[in-house]
Structure formats: structure tokens, C-alpha cells
Amino acid sequence: MAEISIIIPTYNEEVGIIIFLTKLQAFRPQCELILVDGGSDDDTVSLVEDLVDDVVRSDKGRALQMNVGAAMASAPILLFLHADTCLPSDAIETIQQSKDKGFSWGRFDIKLTGKSAVLSLVAWMMNKRSCLTGIATGDQALFVDKALFEQLDGFAEISLMEDIELSSRLKKHGKPYCIKKKVLSSGRRWLSFGVVKTVLLMWWLRLRYFFGANPTKLEQLYRKGRFWKV
Q1: Are 103 and 97 in contact (CB under 8 A)?
Q2: Would you say residue 147 lies in a domain?
């Protein structure tokens, strides 16, 4: 039986998905790989079938897709991993250490890849904020005991901020284990709209979410890189 189920939500990830999954082969059979595709209209699904343990299609929506994957998982620990994020080589041993220390959930520090030097500052800020607040973002490879995840009914199936919402509930059951070893995540989102603009946009959207804004509307703004009207 696998020790950890790695759950990967995808949508139109044919570019780079083979390289991403090839790197994850080193973690098998300790880990089972479950890919949940949200209706890609490219070749994502056909490319991955020999590189994962299970492929399942679901409606689009990252929270929904991750819940579907979690329901299929057989391991006692769930690790949610974006398709543009790479784990450190000793990730599994480090997660097991967190279990031995009595933690029920946690996340990794992050390093953003890309040509802009400002990305290093962005990652540093993300890591510091996460440690201070106990809130993990999806880019930080959140992991959690499956029993606790099921007790909390998984991710809220909202369009955006599902990671923040779940972290807020997980905090009530204990502090996260903050792993200092870094996952490598693509800085493409920050570079596409501009690093400073994207940082300010994320702060603004989180503030609006805190004050009760509709996550669906926030997701539309996020996708288009806008602060106000879609």
C-alpha cells in the first residue's frame, strides 16, 4: 500500500506534463499518483496514462478535482500538487518526519522559477507570510492526513481561495508543519501579467475574499489579471 497519495489537478497541461510526471516516478511505489483532469481539450489525458496510477475526468474546478482525487486515494496521507510544481527529492521522508512529530498537515516553502529576480522576493514573502499566518497556498504542495481531510469534508468547492479556506479550517486542528526545503514552482503567472501587478492583485483579491466577496467573481478577475470589472 502506498504511503502517500499525490493528487494532481490538470487542465490543458500537455506542454510540460510528461517532464513533470517523469520526475515524480522516483517517488513510486511509496506514492500513488492520481491525476484528475477537468475536461482538457488538448492531449493531456492521452499523454499521462502510462505515468500515473489513476486518471479520472471530472468537471472543471480545482477544488472539485482535488476532492475527486482524494476520494479515490488509498494512502493515509494526501499531497495536493500543481502540475507546474516539482517536489524536492526527499519530500516523502520529510513528510513522514512531520507525522512522527505529531503534525496532521503542512506545506513546503516555495521557490519560483523564472528570469525575473523579483520572483525570489515574492517567494520569500510567500514563505514568511505562510509561516506567520499558518495559511498555505496550493503552490506550496499542501499535505494532510486523509482522515482529517475527510472529517472536514475536503475542499470547499469554490472557484478561488479553496486553499486558504481549507487552511483556515485545518488551523483549528493544529499548526501546519512548515517544511523549509523548497518546491520549485513556475513563475509564469507572475511573469504573464507583471510581477508587481500580480502581487498587488493577489493581495487585493484575498482582502476582498476576507470581506465576503464571491469567489466566482474573484476567480474571473484573477484569470484576466484585473482588479475590478471582468
Answers
A1: no
A2: yes
Which residues of the chain carry a pLDDT beneath 50? Answer: none
> Is residue 220 situated within a structural domain?
no
Pairing of strands 105-113, 177-186: parallel
CATH number, residue 43 = 3.90.550.10
Q: Put the strands of the sheet holding 85-86 in their side by side order.
A: 54-57, 31-37, 4-10, 77-80, 143-145, 105-113, 177-186, 85-86
pTM of the model: 0.92
Q: Which neighbouring-strand residues pair with 112?
A: 185
In a domain, 78, yes or no: yes
> Which residues contact residue 53 at a Cβ distance below 8 angstroms, ignoring those fewer than 6 apart?
28, 32, 33, 34
Number of domains present in the structure of the chain:
1
Close Cβ partners of 36 (under 8 Å, ≥ 6 residues apart):
7, 8, 9, 10, 56, 57, 58, 65, 66, 68, 69
Is the bond into 29 cis (omega within 30 degrees of 0)?
A: yes
Domain annotation covers residue 82: yes
Q: What was the pLDDT predicted at 10?
A: 97
Cell of 32: 500513488
Q: Coil, helix or strand for 184?
A: strand
| Alpha-carbon span 153 to 173, nearest angstrom | 14
Range of the domain at 111: 4-116+134-187
